[in-house]
Write a structure and sequence with these properties.
about 50% helix; elongated; 7-stranded mixed β-sheet; two-stranded antiparallel ribbon
Amino acid sequence: MFIKIPDEVVYIINQLKEHGYDAYVVGGCVRDSLLGKIPKDWDITTNALPHEIKPIFDKTINTGIQHGTVTVVIENQGFEVTTYRIDGEYLDNRRPDRVTFTQSLEQDLARRDFTINAMAYNHNKGLIDPFNGRTALWEQMVACVGIADERFNEDALRMLRAIRFSAELKFEIEEKTRDAIIHNSKKIQKVSIERIREEMNKILVSDEPEKMRLLYELQLLQYMIPSLKTCFETGQNHSYHMYNVGEHIMNTLKHIEPTLYLRLAMLFHDIGKPISKTTDEEYKDHFYGHADVSGELARNILKGMKYDNQTIDKIETLVVYHDIQLSVSKKWVKKWLNKIGAEAFSDLLKVKKADISAQRDIYYDKRHNQLMEIQKLLQEILRDKECFQRSQLEINGNDLIELGIDEGIEIGRILGQLVEIVIDRPQLNNRKDLLDQVKQSIRVGESD
Protein backbone atom coordinates (compact mmCIF):
# COMPACT_ATOMS: atom_id res chain seq x y z
CA MET A 1 0.00 0.00 0.00
CA PHE A 2 1.22 3.50 -0.86
CA ILE A 3 -0.29 6.81 0.22
CA LYS A 4 0.92 9.96 -1.51
CA ILE A 5 2.03 12.41 1.16
CA PRO A 6 2.95 16.08 0.55
CA ASP A 7 6.68 16.75 0.36
CA GLU A 8 6.58 18.97 3.46
CA VAL A 9 5.02 16.17 5.51
CA VAL A 10 7.52 13.63 4.22
CA TYR A 11 10.29 16.04 5.22
CA ILE A 12 8.91 16.33 8.79
CA ILE A 13 8.60 12.55 9.14
CA ASN A 14 12.12 11.99 7.75
CA GLN A 15 13.66 14.65 9.99
CA LEU A 16 12.11 13.02 13.06
CA LYS A 17 13.31 9.62 11.85
CA GLU A 18 16.88 10.92 11.34
CA HIS A 19 16.85 12.08 14.96
CA GLY A 20 15.84 8.62 16.17
CA TYR A 21 12.06 8.99 16.43
CA ASP A 22 9.08 7.31 14.77
CA ALA A 23 6.49 9.46 13.01
CA TYR A 24 3.35 8.81 10.97
CA VAL A 25 0.51 10.66 9.31
CA VAL A 26 -2.60 9.82 11.29
CA GLY A 27 -6.37 10.10 11.46
CA GLY A 28 -8.54 11.78 8.85
CA CYS A 29 -5.79 12.24 6.26
CA VAL A 30 -5.17 8.47 6.21
CA ARG A 31 -8.91 7.77 6.03
CA ASP A 32 -9.46 10.19 3.16
CA SER A 33 -6.41 8.96 1.26
CA LEU A 34 -7.68 5.38 1.42
CA LEU A 35 -11.03 6.60 0.13
CA GLY A 36 -9.33 8.30 -2.81
CA LYS A 37 -10.04 11.78 -1.51
CA ILE A 38 -7.62 14.68 -1.13
CA PRO A 39 -7.12 15.39 2.60
CA LYS A 40 -7.67 18.92 3.84
CA ASP A 41 -5.14 18.57 6.64
CA TRP A 42 -2.17 16.34 7.35
CA ASP A 43 -1.70 15.51 11.04
CA ILE A 44 1.48 13.83 12.22
CA THR A 45 1.95 11.71 15.33
CA THR A 46 5.31 10.79 16.85
CA ASN A 47 6.96 9.27 19.90
CA ALA A 48 9.12 12.39 20.22
CA LEU A 49 8.18 14.66 23.11
CA PRO A 50 7.36 18.32 22.42
CA HIS A 51 10.70 19.56 23.78
CA GLU A 52 12.42 17.03 21.51
CA ILE A 53 10.46 18.08 18.42
CA LYS A 54 11.13 21.80 18.63
CA PRO A 55 14.96 21.83 18.21
CA ILE A 56 14.74 19.68 15.07
CA PHE A 57 12.94 22.35 13.03
CA ASP A 58 13.72 25.98 12.28
CA LYS A 59 10.27 27.31 13.14
CA THR A 60 7.65 25.86 15.48
CA ILE A 61 4.60 27.18 17.33
CA ASN A 62 3.43 25.91 20.72
CA THR A 63 -0.12 25.18 19.54
CA GLY A 64 -1.15 22.90 22.40
CA ILE A 65 2.10 21.88 23.99
CA GLN A 66 0.44 20.77 27.25
CA HIS A 67 -1.38 18.14 25.18
CA GLY A 68 1.72 17.30 23.16
CA THR A 69 0.99 19.33 20.03
CA VAL A 70 3.59 21.46 18.27
CA THR A 71 2.97 23.15 14.92
CA VAL A 72 5.93 22.83 12.58
CA VAL A 73 6.07 25.61 10.00
CA ILE A 74 7.46 24.71 6.57
CA GLU A 75 7.43 27.43 3.91
CA ASN A 76 4.73 29.39 5.79
CA GLN A 77 2.51 26.32 6.07
CA GLY A 78 1.74 24.81 9.49
CA PHE A 79 1.61 21.07 10.24
CA GLU A 80 0.52 19.77 13.65
CA VAL A 81 2.87 17.21 15.20
CA THR A 82 1.54 15.49 18.31
CA THR A 83 3.23 13.11 20.71
CA TYR A 84 1.67 9.69 21.25
CA ARG A 85 -0.52 10.04 24.31
CA ILE A 86 -2.96 8.34 26.64
CA ASP A 87 -5.90 10.42 27.81
CA GLY A 88 -6.92 10.60 31.47
CA GLU A 89 -10.51 10.69 32.73
CA TYR A 90 -13.10 12.75 30.86
CA LEU A 91 -14.89 14.37 33.78
CA ASP A 92 -16.91 16.81 31.63
CA ASN A 93 -17.73 14.53 28.66
CA ARG A 94 -15.50 16.68 26.52
CA ARG A 95 -11.80 16.74 27.40
CA PRO A 96 -9.45 14.62 29.54
CA ASP A 97 -8.38 15.94 32.94
CA ARG A 98 -4.79 15.06 31.99
CA VAL A 99 -2.74 13.44 29.24
CA THR A 100 0.14 11.02 29.62
CA PHE A 101 2.72 10.67 26.88
CA THR A 102 3.50 7.15 25.70
CA GLN A 103 5.93 5.38 23.39
CA SER A 104 3.16 3.15 22.03
CA LEU A 105 1.48 4.13 18.77
CA GLU A 106 -1.25 1.57 19.38
CA GLN A 107 -2.10 3.15 22.75
CA ASP A 108 -2.36 6.51 21.01
CA LEU A 109 -4.66 5.11 18.32
CA ALA A 110 -6.79 3.39 20.98
CA ARG A 111 -7.95 6.75 22.39
CA ARG A 112 -9.41 7.90 19.07
CA ASP A 113 -13.12 7.97 18.28
CA PHE A 114 -13.80 5.68 15.32
CA THR A 115 -11.85 2.88 13.69
CA ILE A 116 -11.78 4.74 10.36
CA ASN A 117 -9.90 7.55 12.17
CA ALA A 118 -7.54 5.25 14.09
CA MET A 119 -5.04 4.44 11.35
CA ALA A 120 -1.48 5.68 10.85
CA TYR A 121 0.90 5.49 7.91
CA ASN A 122 4.43 6.21 6.80
CA HIS A 123 6.38 5.11 3.74
CA ASN A 124 8.70 2.92 5.76
CA LYS A 125 6.23 0.78 7.74
CA GLY A 126 3.11 1.23 5.64
CA LEU A 127 -0.38 1.20 7.16
CA ILE A 128 -0.73 0.71 10.91
CA ASP A 129 -4.29 -0.42 11.55
CA PRO A 130 -4.72 -2.23 14.88
CA PHE A 131 -8.52 -1.67 15.01
CA ASN A 132 -9.41 -2.73 11.47
CA GLY A 133 -10.28 0.72 10.20
CA ARG A 134 -9.51 -0.30 6.64
CA THR A 135 -12.09 -3.09 6.91
CA ALA A 136 -14.63 -0.56 8.23
CA LEU A 137 -13.92 1.61 5.17
CA TRP A 138 -14.46 -1.40 2.92
CA GLU A 139 -17.71 -2.24 4.72
CA GLN A 140 -18.72 1.46 4.76
CA MET A 141 -19.27 1.39 8.50
CA VAL A 142 -18.76 3.93 11.29
CA ALA A 143 -17.75 2.00 14.42
CA CYS A 144 -16.19 3.12 17.67
CA VAL A 145 -12.69 2.13 18.70
CA GLY A 146 -13.03 -0.32 21.57
CA ILE A 147 -16.07 0.05 23.82
CA ALA A 148 -18.51 2.56 22.35
CA ASP A 149 -19.96 3.60 25.73
CA GLU A 150 -16.48 4.63 26.87
CA ARG A 151 -15.81 6.65 23.72
CA PHE A 152 -19.07 8.61 24.09
CA ASN A 153 -18.55 9.09 27.80
CA GLU A 154 -15.17 10.63 27.01
CA ASP A 155 -16.61 13.12 24.55
CA ALA A 156 -20.38 13.24 24.01
CA LEU A 157 -19.94 15.21 20.78
CA ARG A 158 -18.68 11.98 19.21
CA MET A 159 -22.31 10.89 18.96
CA LEU A 160 -22.94 13.72 16.50
CA ARG A 161 -19.63 13.05 14.78
CA ALA A 162 -20.76 9.47 14.12
CA ILE A 163 -23.84 10.81 12.33
CA ARG A 164 -21.77 13.41 10.52
CA PHE A 165 -19.32 10.82 9.16
CA SER A 166 -22.27 8.63 8.18
CA ALA A 167 -23.73 11.56 6.19
CA GLU A 168 -20.46 12.77 4.66
CA LEU A 169 -19.13 9.33 3.70
CA LYS A 170 -22.51 7.70 3.00
CA PHE A 171 -21.71 5.02 5.57
CA GLU A 172 -23.93 3.17 8.01
CA ILE A 173 -23.41 3.32 11.78
CA GLU A 174 -22.47 -0.04 13.30
CA GLU A 175 -25.14 -1.57 15.56
CA LYS A 176 -23.22 -1.46 18.85
CA THR A 177 -22.26 2.14 18.15
CA ARG A 178 -25.93 3.01 17.46
CA ASP A 179 -27.01 1.33 20.70
CA ALA A 180 -24.37 3.24 22.64
CA ILE A 181 -25.56 6.57 21.18
CA ILE A 182 -29.10 5.82 22.35
CA HIS A 183 -27.81 4.78 25.78
CA ASN A 184 -25.73 7.97 26.14
CA SER A 185 -27.95 10.41 24.24
CA LYS A 186 -28.79 12.51 27.29
CA LYS A 187 -25.11 13.45 27.64
CA ILE A 188 -25.35 15.63 24.54
CA GLN A 189 -26.75 18.29 26.89
CA LYS A 190 -23.26 18.67 28.37
CA VAL A 191 -21.79 19.71 25.02
CA SER A 192 -21.55 23.42 24.18
CA ILE A 193 -24.13 24.68 21.71
CA GLU A 194 -21.35 25.99 19.43
CA ARG A 195 -19.83 22.51 19.02
CA ILE A 196 -23.27 21.00 18.42
CA ARG A 197 -24.05 23.68 15.83
CA GLU A 198 -20.86 23.05 13.87
CA GLU A 199 -21.46 19.31 13.65
CA MET A 200 -25.10 19.86 12.67
CA ASN A 201 -23.99 22.27 9.94
CA LYS A 202 -21.65 19.64 8.50
CA ILE A 203 -24.45 17.07 8.44
CA LEU A 204 -26.76 19.51 6.69
CA VAL A 205 -24.34 20.41 3.88
CA SER A 206 -23.26 16.80 3.35
CA ASP A 207 -24.29 14.58 0.42
CA GLU A 208 -26.88 12.89 2.64
CA PRO A 209 -28.47 15.68 4.70
CA GLU A 210 -31.50 13.47 5.31
CA LYS A 211 -29.27 11.61 7.78
CA MET A 212 -30.46 14.33 10.17
CA ARG A 213 -33.26 11.83 10.88
CA LEU A 214 -30.67 9.80 12.82
CA LEU A 215 -30.84 12.53 15.46
CA TYR A 216 -34.42 11.40 16.01
CA GLU A 217 -33.84 7.66 15.64
CA LEU A 218 -30.90 7.72 18.07
CA GLN A 219 -32.83 9.87 20.59
CA LEU A 220 -30.58 12.94 20.43
CA LEU A 221 -33.10 15.33 18.92
CA GLN A 222 -35.22 15.64 22.06
CA TYR A 223 -32.22 17.19 23.82
CA MET A 224 -31.20 19.40 20.91
CA ILE A 225 -34.33 20.67 19.12
CA PRO A 226 -37.42 19.29 20.91
CA SER A 227 -39.89 20.98 18.56
CA LEU A 228 -38.27 19.21 15.61
CA LYS A 229 -38.60 15.87 17.40
CA THR A 230 -42.34 16.50 17.69
CA CYS A 231 -42.53 16.83 13.90
CA PHE A 232 -41.67 13.13 13.53
CA GLU A 233 -44.69 12.34 15.70
CA THR A 234 -47.12 14.57 13.78
CA GLY A 235 -49.06 12.98 10.92
CA GLN A 236 -50.35 14.80 7.83
CA ASN A 237 -53.63 13.30 6.68
CA HIS A 238 -53.91 15.50 3.63
CA SER A 239 -54.05 14.84 -0.10
CA TYR A 240 -50.76 16.66 -0.72
CA HIS A 241 -48.73 14.63 1.77
CA MET A 242 -47.40 11.07 2.04
CA TYR A 243 -45.05 11.56 5.03
CA ASN A 244 -45.40 12.75 8.61
CA VAL A 245 -44.05 16.27 9.14
CA GLY A 246 -40.58 15.14 10.23
CA GLU A 247 -40.09 12.74 7.32
CA HIS A 248 -41.35 15.39 4.92
CA ILE A 249 -38.74 17.82 6.27
CA MET A 250 -35.97 15.24 5.92
CA ASN A 251 -36.94 14.55 2.31
CA THR A 252 -36.90 18.24 1.39
CA LEU A 253 -33.28 18.59 2.53
CA LYS A 254 -31.91 16.51 -0.35
CA HIS A 255 -33.87 18.51 -2.93
CA ILE A 256 -32.11 21.82 -2.35
CA GLU A 257 -28.50 22.81 -3.01
CA PRO A 258 -25.98 22.31 -0.17
CA THR A 259 -25.91 25.93 0.92
CA LEU A 260 -26.18 26.07 4.70
CA TYR A 261 -28.90 28.71 5.09
CA LEU A 262 -31.06 27.03 2.41
CA ARG A 263 -30.79 23.66 4.12
CA LEU A 264 -31.53 25.28 7.48
CA ALA A 265 -34.59 26.92 5.92
CA MET A 266 -35.83 23.51 4.84
CA LEU A 267 -35.06 22.04 8.26
CA PHE A 268 -37.32 24.61 9.92
CA HIS A 269 -39.88 25.43 7.23
CA ASP A 270 -42.61 23.24 8.77
CA ILE A 271 -41.45 23.11 12.38
CA GLY A 272 -44.57 25.02 13.45
CA LYS A 273 -46.98 22.43 12.03
CA PRO A 274 -47.43 20.41 15.26
CA ILE A 275 -48.58 23.57 17.05
CA SER A 276 -50.81 24.66 14.14
CA LYS A 277 -52.46 21.32 13.40
CA THR A 278 -56.24 21.03 13.31
CA THR A 279 -58.38 18.16 12.03
CA ASP A 280 -61.77 18.69 10.41
CA GLU A 281 -64.90 16.54 10.65
CA GLU A 282 -63.66 14.42 7.73
CA TYR A 283 -60.40 13.70 9.59
CA LYS A 284 -58.42 15.82 7.17
CA ASP A 285 -55.49 17.66 8.75
CA HIS A 286 -54.89 21.39 8.27
CA PHE A 287 -52.00 23.61 9.38
CA TYR A 288 -53.35 27.14 9.09
CA GLY A 289 -50.79 29.83 9.85
CA HIS A 290 -47.98 27.31 10.31
CA ALA A 291 -45.51 29.36 8.24
CA ASP A 292 -45.62 32.29 10.67
CA VAL A 293 -45.34 29.96 13.65
CA SER A 294 -42.43 28.17 11.97
CA GLY A 295 -40.68 31.47 11.31
CA GLU A 296 -40.90 32.49 14.95
CA LEU A 297 -39.72 29.09 16.18
CA ALA A 298 -36.86 29.09 13.66
CA ARG A 299 -35.65 32.52 14.81
CA ASN A 300 -35.70 31.52 18.47
CA ILE A 301 -33.92 28.21 17.86
CA LEU A 302 -31.28 29.77 15.63
CA LYS A 303 -30.64 32.55 18.13
CA GLY A 304 -30.28 29.95 20.88
CA MET A 305 -27.74 28.11 18.71
CA LYS A 306 -25.86 31.39 18.21
CA TYR A 307 -26.15 31.73 14.44
CA ASP A 308 -25.35 35.19 13.12
CA ASN A 309 -28.18 37.67 12.62
CA GLN A 310 -27.83 37.86 8.83
CA THR A 311 -28.24 34.09 8.51
CA ILE A 312 -31.21 34.11 10.89
CA ASP A 313 -32.93 36.89 8.92
CA LYS A 314 -32.47 35.04 5.61
CA ILE A 315 -33.85 31.81 7.02
CA GLU A 316 -36.81 33.45 8.75
CA THR A 317 -37.83 35.20 5.52
CA LEU A 318 -37.79 31.95 3.57
CA VAL A 319 -39.66 30.06 6.28
CA VAL A 320 -42.37 32.69 6.74
CA TYR A 321 -43.08 32.95 3.00
CA HIS A 322 -42.48 29.34 1.92
CA ASP A 323 -46.23 28.61 1.73
CA ILE A 324 -47.35 31.61 -0.35
CA GLN A 325 -49.76 31.00 -3.22
CA LEU A 326 -48.02 31.34 -6.57
CA SER A 327 -49.25 33.32 -9.55
CA VAL A 328 -47.73 33.24 -13.02
CA SER A 329 -47.66 36.96 -13.79
CA LYS A 330 -44.97 39.61 -13.93
CA LYS A 331 -47.03 41.86 -11.72
CA TRP A 332 -47.11 39.23 -8.97
CA VAL A 333 -43.40 38.48 -9.32
CA LYS A 334 -42.47 42.17 -9.15
CA LYS A 335 -44.58 42.72 -6.05
CA TRP A 336 -42.67 39.95 -4.30
CA LEU A 337 -39.36 41.26 -5.60
CA ASN A 338 -40.27 44.61 -4.11
CA LYS A 339 -41.22 42.98 -0.81
CA ILE A 340 -38.23 40.69 -0.20
CA GLY A 341 -35.64 41.43 -2.90
CA ALA A 342 -34.32 39.46 -5.87
CA GLU A 343 -31.95 37.17 -3.95
CA ALA A 344 -34.54 36.13 -1.38
CA PHE A 345 -37.20 35.62 -4.06
CA SER A 346 -34.89 33.42 -6.10
CA ASP A 347 -34.13 31.42 -2.96
CA LEU A 348 -37.84 31.19 -2.22
CA LEU A 349 -38.43 29.47 -5.55
CA LYS A 350 -35.76 26.92 -4.61
CA VAL A 351 -37.49 26.36 -1.26
CA LYS A 352 -40.86 25.92 -2.98
CA LYS A 353 -39.36 23.39 -5.38
CA ALA A 354 -37.78 21.38 -2.55
CA ASP A 355 -41.08 21.48 -0.66
CA ILE A 356 -43.17 20.09 -3.50
CA SER A 357 -40.48 17.49 -4.29
CA ALA A 358 -41.23 15.83 -0.94
CA GLN A 359 -44.99 15.72 -1.46
CA ARG A 360 -47.21 13.40 -3.49
CA ASP A 361 -45.94 12.83 -7.03
CA ILE A 362 -49.34 13.32 -8.67
CA TYR A 363 -49.21 17.05 -7.91
CA TYR A 364 -45.56 17.59 -8.78
CA ASP A 365 -45.57 18.21 -12.54
CA LYS A 366 -48.25 20.91 -12.47
CA ARG A 367 -46.68 22.76 -9.56
CA HIS A 368 -43.13 22.37 -10.88
CA ASN A 369 -44.17 23.75 -14.29
CA GLN A 370 -45.71 26.73 -12.53
CA LEU A 371 -42.44 27.35 -10.70
CA MET A 372 -40.48 27.14 -13.94
CA GLU A 373 -42.77 29.69 -15.58
CA ILE A 374 -42.29 32.05 -12.66
CA GLN A 375 -38.51 31.46 -12.83
CA LYS A 376 -38.62 32.44 -16.51
CA LEU A 377 -40.54 35.63 -15.70
CA LEU A 378 -37.99 36.44 -12.99
CA GLN A 379 -35.13 36.08 -15.46
CA GLU A 380 -36.89 38.36 -17.96
CA ILE A 381 -37.56 41.02 -15.32
CA LEU A 382 -33.94 41.01 -14.15
CA ARG A 383 -32.55 40.85 -17.70
CA ASP A 384 -34.64 43.77 -18.91
CA LYS A 385 -34.12 45.70 -15.67
CA GLU A 386 -37.86 46.14 -15.22
CA CYS A 387 -38.69 48.31 -12.24
CA PHE A 388 -39.69 46.71 -8.95
CA GLN A 389 -37.86 48.90 -6.42
CA ARG A 390 -37.27 52.60 -5.72
CA SER A 391 -33.71 52.65 -7.03
CA GLN A 392 -35.02 51.71 -10.49
CA LEU A 393 -37.46 54.61 -10.74
CA GLU A 394 -36.58 57.31 -13.27
CA ILE A 395 -36.94 59.95 -10.55
CA ASN A 396 -35.59 60.10 -7.02
CA GLY A 397 -35.94 61.98 -3.76
CA ASN A 398 -34.15 65.06 -5.08
CA ASP A 399 -36.79 65.44 -7.78
CA LEU A 400 -39.50 65.40 -5.11
CA ILE A 401 -37.66 67.99 -3.05
CA GLU A 402 -37.61 70.28 -6.11
CA LEU A 403 -41.40 69.95 -6.17
CA GLY A 404 -41.52 71.27 -2.62
CA ILE A 405 -41.76 67.95 -0.78
CA ASP A 406 -39.15 68.06 1.96
CA GLU A 407 -40.23 65.54 4.57
CA GLY A 408 -38.14 62.33 4.58
CA ILE A 409 -41.03 60.07 5.52
CA GLU A 410 -43.32 61.65 2.93
CA ILE A 411 -40.68 61.28 0.21
CA GLY A 412 -40.31 57.59 1.04
CA ARG A 413 -44.06 57.10 1.00
CA ILE A 414 -44.47 58.75 -2.41
CA LEU A 415 -41.59 56.81 -3.96
CA GLY A 416 -43.15 53.61 -2.62
CA GLN A 417 -46.47 54.53 -4.23
CA LEU A 418 -44.72 55.23 -7.52
CA VAL A 419 -43.13 51.78 -7.48
CA GLU A 420 -46.59 50.24 -7.00
CA ILE A 421 -47.90 52.27 -9.92
CA VAL A 422 -44.99 51.26 -12.17
CA ILE A 423 -45.37 47.60 -11.23
CA ASP A 424 -48.99 47.81 -12.45
CA ARG A 425 -48.12 49.97 -15.48
CA PRO A 426 -44.44 49.59 -16.45
CA GLN A 427 -44.78 52.11 -19.29
CA LEU A 428 -45.10 54.94 -16.73
CA ASN A 429 -41.50 54.54 -15.53
CA ASN A 430 -40.22 57.67 -17.25
CA ARG A 431 -39.42 61.06 -15.77
CA LYS A 432 -42.34 62.98 -17.29
CA ASP A 433 -45.09 60.51 -16.37
CA LEU A 434 -43.73 59.96 -12.85
CA LEU A 435 -43.54 63.68 -12.14
CA ASP A 436 -47.07 64.08 -13.51
CA GLN A 437 -48.22 61.36 -11.10
CA VAL A 438 -46.60 63.19 -8.19
CA LYS A 439 -48.03 66.58 -9.19
CA GLN A 440 -51.48 65.06 -9.57
CA SER A 441 -51.27 63.49 -6.10
CA ILE A 442 -50.19 66.85 -4.66
CA ARG A 443 -53.16 68.59 -6.27
CA VAL A 444 -55.53 65.94 -4.96
CA GLY A 445 -54.03 66.32 -1.52
CA GLU A 446 -54.47 70.10 -1.60
CA SER A 447 -58.11 69.86 -2.71
CA ASP A 448 -58.83 67.50 0.18
